[in-house]
Amino acid sequence: MILEVWTTLLHGFYVSISPENLLACTVGVLLGTLAGVLPGIGPVGAIALLLPLSFSINVTSSLIMFAGIFYGAMYGGSTTSILLNLPGEAASVVTCIDGNAMAKQGRAGAALAVAAIGSFIAGTLGVVGLTLFAPLLANAALVFGPAEYFAIAVLGLIILTRLTGRSMLKSALMAVIGIILGTVGLDNLTGVSRFSYVFDELQRGMEFAIVAMGLFGVSEVLDTMIRPPDKISWQPVRFRELYPSWEEWRRSLAPIFRGGTTGFLVGLLPGPAATISTFVSYALEKKLSKHPEQFGKGAIEGVAGPEAANNAAASATMIPLLSLGLPFSGASAILLSGFMIHGVTPGPTMVTERPDLFWGLIASMYLGNVLLLIINLPMVGMFAYILKTPANILMPLVLIITMAGAYSLNNSVFDLWLLAIFGLLGFFMRKTGFEPAPLAVGLMLGPALERGLVQGLLIGNGDIWTSFARPISGTLLAIAFILILFNVVRWVGKIRYGGRAGTTHLDNKQ
After folding, report:
1. How many domains does the chain have?
2. Could you tell me if 178 and 483 are in contact, meaning their C-beta atoms sit under 8 angstroms apart?
3. In the chain, helix, strand, coil percent, each to 5?
4. Domain, as residue range, for 376
5. What is the DSSP letter of 99?
6. In a domain, 221, yes or no
7. DSSP structure string for 102-119
8. HEC-encoded secondary structure of 180-193
9. CA–CA dist 230, 213 (Å, integer)
10. 464-490 burial string, b = 16+ CB within 10 Å, else e?
11. How far is the CA of 34 from the CAs of 63, 76, 218, in angstroms?
12. Residues 370-381: pLDDT tens digits?
């Protein structure tokens, strides 16, 4: 079986290295990198814009190009996240936390290099998994129903809201606000408009990309602008500091493989898997780290793990698309439309009916990962030197790019107002000790939580306990309850013993 797979994969490499297909792969990864760097565009927007151009080339080349755009955007999104605290793509939101902190410490080059190499390793491992386990893992993912997705969302919210390790109450409050924002717009089940008031534009809901760009990017611009000129200083980048030290490589290796594994498994689930996998990877690395206090202040693990996770997830989302014809994410849905436009129906019969296309596409992903490493790694120095641009020039350019990206999502001026509002909100959150990451988690997981809960209640005739009766969802909800109880007990203990220690200290002084 395995020998047969590798034999057909070799034939796929023969297909993918033809001049036309190799050129399509190169163009795809370059456009994907650019789409990731420019805020708001992302793989979905880039593929949608280029669909008409694919009519003039053959189906194999066009789909190889679209796949290159898809995983290339996962590479490019880390660049502005690290350098400017501006997520170029939704899956790069978590990279802002430690990546930008490293940039401000003069380690932008190291962060960029680790992100590129981690993405290459995890992306390649993800394609190996796609090659070997596509039918098996896709069928396993289909076992999950509404109750399981509700349980995953609940557990994810509990684990992921404390990404930065600050106040539990503040993190929980931000997560709840994110969930509330996720309910804005048309209800997917009933079609009822909620919290849109007189603004028709709100009926489509809150765009995660706009919220993320406002909370992280625009707030960074505002925070930089109000600082006195003598305090606005990006650290100079020396040539020997452009790439990671041996200590940074040592600390990055295990997170890269853990992130790749985590991203691949999460990528098998419907929804924004690449984005969710980065939050999961970050929380996991912080939990396993011997120095969790360094997270949020420039921990290299906080860059390596999430960047590996989003690239592995990008490969994993291709599994249900190619083997079952089911798009589990927005980007894979756009890819599916590309298949359909060219008269190709992905699914179980695709392997036998169109082996050249199926294996050529998978082989091109191996080549694409190598091309991305070749393209991105030598440019680390150039990217890092962006930080030497004076802030009074750099920040207006960042704001212009951010506004252009936000406008390009829906060609709506209303989105620019939302960008400004969330930018101001993020700015005031910085000044008052609140973190934007839990709010982003709540906004991202809120719709999945609501959808899983409502659908589960409909299936169970209004009985919520049916979710606990199912083995997988019941186990996940039990773990969530234990985690809540543990956090509450620990919080109460800190208040109790902290207050007692303070009293003892005062008594000793007297």
Report:
1. 1
2. no
3. 80, 0, 20
4. 2-469
5. H
6. yes
7. HHHTT-HHHHHHHHHHHH
8. HHHCCEECCCCCCE
9. 27
10. eebbbebeebbebbeebeeeeeeeeee
11. 18, 6, 20
12. 888 888 777 766
Please give the pLDDT value at position 256. Answer: 92
Region for residue 102 given its phi and psi (left: phi exceeds 0; alpha: psi -120 to 50; beta: otherwise): alpha
Using CA atoms in the order 198, 202, 204, 207, what is the torsion angle rounded to 10 degrees? 170
Tokens of 226: 């109000």
Could you tell me if residue 479 is inside a domain? Answer: no
- The predicted-structure confidence for 172-224, as pLDDT tens digits, reads as follows 888 899 899 989 988 877 778 888 888 888 888 888 778 888 887 788 788 87
Residue whose structure tokens are 């109450």? 169
Amino acid at 78: S
The pair of structure tokens assigned to 11 is 């034939």
Pick from 193, 271, 281: nearest CA to 443: 271
Helical ranges in 142-167 per DSSP H: 146-160
Amino acid residing at 431: K
CA gyration radius for the chain? Answer: 23
Look at residue 498 in the predicted model and tell me its pLDDT: 60
**Distance between CA atoms of residues 469 and 471, nearest Å:** 6
The tokens for 24 are 């399509």
Taking the C-alpha atoms of residue 236 and residue 399, their distance in angstroms, rounded to an integer, is 23
Cβ atoms of 368 and 74 within 8 Å: the answer is no
Residue 185 is given by DSSP the state: E
**What is residue 230's predicted lDDT score, i.e. its pLDDT?**
46
State which amino acid sits at residue 41.
Answer: I
Per-residue pLDDT, 502: 47
